[in-house]
Amino acid sequence: MERPTLNAEGSATWTLPTWAWLIGVIALLAWHGWLTLALFGDQPLEHLLNDQPIVSGMHPQHLYIGATGAWSIANHGRAAVCDHRFQAGWPKTPIFNGGRMAELLLLLGGGSYQPAAYKIGFAVLCLMVPFFMLIACKAVHLGHATSLLATVFGLSIWWGPHGRA
């Protein structure tokens, strides 16, 4: 481990060797991947690939609205549709209704109601979070140690009770 050095302003800085940073990033990604798969129950791969929808939080609504929008885009070429199965002709628009990410994921999955496509896309988006955090830290010129520590704190918030809910 290197000793702290004084920078031009007189404050101490601590640098982390590149190999230690890479080991930390790999450990962080493994931990994050394990927690992401744990979202899908005891047998995560089986639950991730089946057609049973996620029934917690806002996922059912996003899946329904996303499936409606993806079907409309695939069949009519527009994201606005009047859904006669819900609220006696509910107009679904891309501006006022949520589920845009679900709409994109289901459109990539074929444009129909496919909970497996939504769940796989959701898992991939969750897996990308630490990469975005590390990129953001490096974009503001944080060092290896600081960026790794900031990402650990960010993921602690991400996996906290409010994030998991």
Description:
This protein has helices spanning 18-38, 44-49, 59-76, 100-108, 115-139, 144-158, 161-164, and strands spanning 5-6, 12-13, 81-83, 90-92. By secondary structure, it is mostly helical. The strands form two sheets. The chain has a two-stranded antiparallel sheet. Strand 3 and strand 4 (90-92) form a beta hairpin. It is elongated.
Query: What structural category do the secondary elements indicate?
Result: mainly alpha
Instruction: Return the string of H and E elements.
Output: EEHHHEEHHHH
Mean pLDDT: 84
Span of the ends, CA to CA: 39 Å
Rg estimate, integer Å: 21 Å
- Largest sheet composition: 2 strands, antiparallel
Helix content: 55-70%
Broad shape: elongated
**Number of strand elements:** 4
